[in-house]
Write a structure and sequence with these properties.
Elements lengths: L1 E3 L11 E5 L7 H17 L2 E8 L2 H5 L11 H9 L5 E6 L2 H4 L3 H13 L1 E6 L13 H11 L2 E4 L2 H5 L5 H9 L3 H8 L4 E7 L4 H4 L5 E5 L10 E9 L8 E8 L10 E6 L10 E11 L7 H22 L1
Parallel strand pairs: 1-4, 2-3, 2-5, 3-4, 5-6
Antiparallel strand pairs: 7-8, 7-12, 8-11, 9-10, 9-12, 10-11
Helix pairs in contact: 5-6, 8-9
Length: about 325
């Protein structure tokens, strides 16, 4: 898959089979569209092309929404490479770009810029200024500019009953298994290991405190999770196993929300390193205990449960 960071970078194709959208998370619903896109491209001797945008359009159009994303741009590219796409165009989304009429978007960007001969779009897809563009609009202009349009039927997408919003809600509730089912893979986040208050070390559960690298990345809801971790500087090594607490540590009472990972059978100094955390299973909600001894006893149980769950994944 070749990646371009604007439509201007893309060498216009003579037979582009195109889809467009944000594709946050690259979940099952997205893959239905991309699978169809690739099949059409193969059957017509064309090239499959995805046009997506960065930043997410809602961040530009509705900045007060404070939307959190399922995937960083780098994570999205990694997932899209697995789909068999020929080309990915990541076009800058600006307020000026959002004001382009649907007619200009079709003519200047899709036809003249990319060379679209066929569009494959999801049901009820809209685009252009004020979302004025639609399937019918594309069909009408296809006759003028020489491209055809295929819409993925609503029932085909409804069969998987998935959306980026549903996945965000599942993660916000701390339900990483449901999110994984809809994504088709376990949710991840990355960040740098920073120093914490080191209370975990005092009760034999030292933790790596994670400072998430992308402020727009969605952090799962408070709870304890079975996780695996990869060190970015040793990505070729097998993943480490562990458990992660996300929350405000109510037993200690400092009131700050943190992401803390306890890695099993591991004692390296990794301050300053970057870790990728993969959320495998929700173990429990965050709980306030009467004292540190009670917390330690629960952590022992959590570790047993985490080891058991991670062994199932092996």
């Amino acid at each position: 898959m070749k990646v371009y960071y604007s439509i201007d970078e893309f060498p216009r194709s003579e037979n582009a089979v195109l889809t467009t959208g944000t594709f946050d998370g690259v979940h099952y619903g997205h893959r239905i569209i991309l699978d169809r896109l690739n099949r059409v491209a193969e059957s017509t001797g064309g090239e499959s092309v995805l046009l997506t945008f960065n930043p997410h359009p809602r961040m530009v159009l509705r900045p007060n929404d404070n939307i959190k994303l399922l995937s960083t741009l780098d994570e999205k590219i990694v997932q899209l490479k697995k789909t068999g796409l020929n080309h990915l165009i990541v076009h800058p989304f600006t307020m000026a770009f959002s004001q382009m009429t649907s007619n200009d978007f079709i003519r200047k960007q899709l036809v003249e810029g990319i060379g679209a001969k066929k569009l494959v779009i999801g049901y009820d897809h809209h685009f252009g200024r004020n979302r004025e563009g639609s399937f019918e609009h594309l069909k009408q202009h296809g006759q003028d500019y020489g491209f055809s349009v295929e819409e993925i039927p609503a029932q085909e997408l409804d069969e998987v009953a998935v959306s980026s919003t549903k996945i965000r809600n599942a993660l916000t509730d701390g339900n990483v298994e449901r999110a994984a089912k809809w994504l088709g893979y376990h949710y991840t986040l990355s960040g740098k290991v920073v120093k914490g208050n080191q209370i975990g070390r005092n009760i034999s559960f030292p933790t790596a405190n994670i400072l998430v690298s992308d402020l727009n990345k969605l952090i799962p809801g408070n709870g304890v999770f079975a996780v695996t971790a990869r060190r970015h500087n040793r990505i070729e090594e097998p993943p480490l196993k562990g458990m992660c607490n996300i929350g405000e540590k109510p037993t200690i009472g400092d009131g700050f929300r943190t992401i803390e990972v306890h890695l099993f059978d591991f004692d390296d100094n990794i301050y300053g390193e970057s870790l990728e955390i993969t959320f495998v299973k929700t173990l429990r909600k965050e709980t306030k205990f009467s004292n540190l001894d009670a917390l330690k006893q629960q952590l022992e149980k959590d570790k047993e449960n985490a080891v058991r769950e991670l062994e199932k994944q092996a």
